[in-house]
Amino acid sequence: MLQSRLFTTTAGSALWAPEIPGLMMRLQGHVSLDQYQLLLNHGLQMFTGHRHPEAVAHWIVDLRQLSTLPPEAHTWMAHDWHPRAHAAGLRHLRFVEMDATADSIAQQLLGALVQLATDATLGLTRHDTLEAAIQQARAVSAPVVE
């Protein structure tokens, strides 16, 4: 049975978008480690429940409204969440953030995944706009009709 297509909390939201196909997540404000884990874990359940086994599915994380994320979230994502996401079929993770500085949250998360994650097959990209992330995701694979 498929999970809900929408999940929201005060820290953000997750939406399954079959037209991409993939999960779109938005983080906002000051996100604690517990809130981050809740969002990513619930998002992974949605990803697993909706992903067509033969389709290339994407995960787009919009960080433009995120103020802070604790440093331990990077390690947790790389060591705990990422192996489970990889086992669930995640191969494309896209971050949306207008600030491309070295200390931006997207750059920190990308760096943690590159340095700490054991899977070199995960496609990691950063985009300035949500539209650019969606267009690139659609270009990689055509949607599979459920």
Features:
Rossmann fold; six-stranded mixed beta sheet; 6 strands; 39% helix; 146 residues; alpha/beta
Question: Could you outline the blueprint of secondary structure elements for this entry?
Answer:
Blueprint: E1 6-9, E2 12-17, E3 22-30, H1 33-50, E4 58-68, H2 72-87, E5 92-96, H3 105-116, E6 123-127, H4 130-140
Parallel strand pairs: 3-4, 4-5, 5-6
Antiparallel strand pairs: 1-2, 2-3
What is this entry, summarized?
By secondary structure, the protein is of the alpha/beta class. The protein contains four helices and six strands. It has a single domain (about 5-140), classed as SpoIIaa-like domains (Rossmann fold, 3-Layer(aba) Sandwich).
> What is the CATH architecture annotation?
3-Layer(aba) Sandwich
Major sheet details:
6 strands, mixed
Structural class call reads: alpha/beta
Gyration radius (Cα, Å) is 14 Å
Could you describe the 3D structure shown?
- By secondary structure, this protein is α/β, with parallel strands linked by helices.
- It has 4 helices and 6 strands, in the order βββαβαβαβα.
- It has helices at 33-50, 72-87, 105-116, 130-140, and strands at 6-9, 12-17, 22-30, 58-68, 92-96, 123-127.
- It has a 6-stranded mixed β-sheet, with helices on both faces.
- Helix 1 runs parallel beside helix 2 (72-87) and helix 2 (72-87) packs across helix 3.
- The longest helix is centred in the N-terminal third of the chain and has 18 residues, at 33-50.
- It starts with 5 loop residues before the first strand and ends in a 6-residue tail after the last helix.
